Amino acid sequence: MNAHDEAAVQQAAVPADAGLLYTDHVAVAVRDPREGVALFVDALGGRFLFGGDNDQQGIRIVQVVLPGGMKIELISPLRDDAPVARFLEKRGPGVHHITLVFADVEVAVARLTACGYEVVDVDLSAPHWREAFVRPRSGLGTLLQLADTTLRWDTPAASGVTLDDVLAGRVVFTADERAVLRDG
C-alpha cells in the first residue's frame, strides 16, 4: 500500500462528524451550592431539577433549569482532595465545564482525536453514562465533558427529594446514577 492509499484508509476511519446531539448543561464550581441557588434560582427564576452527593468524586451537585430551558449544574466540594476543590483554590468560583451529549461517545472521541484535540479520562465502564473529556488547553480554555447516556437528565428529582434535602447532604447518587435519600 502506498502513502496515498494509507492516508485514504486513515481518513476513511475518521467519522464524518462527532454525532453531537445537544448541550446538556454548563457546570459552575462554587464553594457552597447556596451561592449558586441564590443566583440561578432565587434571582433568575431557575427551578430545581435534581441533585445529590457523589461520594466517590467528593462533590455535591445541584442541577437547575432556567427559564427557556438551559441547565446549570452547581458543583461544590465535599472534601479538600476533590478535584473541584483544587479548581476553586486555583481559579475561584466560575464555569468548570460544559457537558455535550453524543449519540456515541466513542465516535466523538475518535473524531476529536483525529482532529487533533487532546481527549483524556475516557470511561466507558458504565452503560448508563459513558464519558471523556477534552482538556482545556486543547479546547479553547474550556473543559468539555463528552458523554452518551441511556438516562433522562431533564426530568425533576425523584419523588420526595427536595432542594433542601440536597443542600443538607441528605441525598446521594447511587452507582446507577439515581439520586436517593441517604436514609432510604
Description:
This protein is of the alpha+beta class and 184 residues long. It has a single domain, classed as 2,3-Dihydroxybiphenyl 1,2-Dioxygenase, domain 1, CATH 3.10.180.10. The chain has helices spanning 3-13, 33-43, 83-91, 105-114, 163-167, and strands at residues 20-29, 47-54, 59-65, 71-77, 94-102, 119-123, 129-134, 144-149, 171-173, 179-181. The chain is globular and about 50 Å long. The N and C termini lie far apart (62 Å).
Number of domains: 1
CATH topology: 2,3-Dihydroxybiphenyl 1,2-Dioxygenase, domain 1
Strand portion, in percent? 25-35%
Strand arrangement in the largest pleated sheet: 2-3-4-1-5-8-7-6
Strand segment count: 10
Largest sheet: 8 strands, mixed
Order of helices and strands: HEHEEEHEHEEEHEE
* Overall morphology: globular
The radius of gyration is 18 Å
Mean pLDDT: 90
CATH architecture: Roll
Counted by DSSP, the helix tally is 5
- Percent of residues in helices: 25-40%
**Distance from first to last alpha carbon:** 62 Å
Low-confidence stretches: 4-9
Structural class: alpha+beta
CATH superfamily grouping: 2,3-Dihydroxybiphenyl 1,2-Dioxygenase, domain 1
CATH class: Alpha Beta
Core attributes:
two-stranded antiparallel sheet; alpha+beta; globular; 25% helix; 10 strands; eight-stranded mixed beta sheet; 2,3-Dihydroxybiphenyl 1,2-Dioxygenase, domain 1; 184 residues; VOC domain-containing protein
Brief digest:
With 184 residues, this protein is an alpha+beta fold. Helix content is 25%, strand content 35%. The termini are far apart.
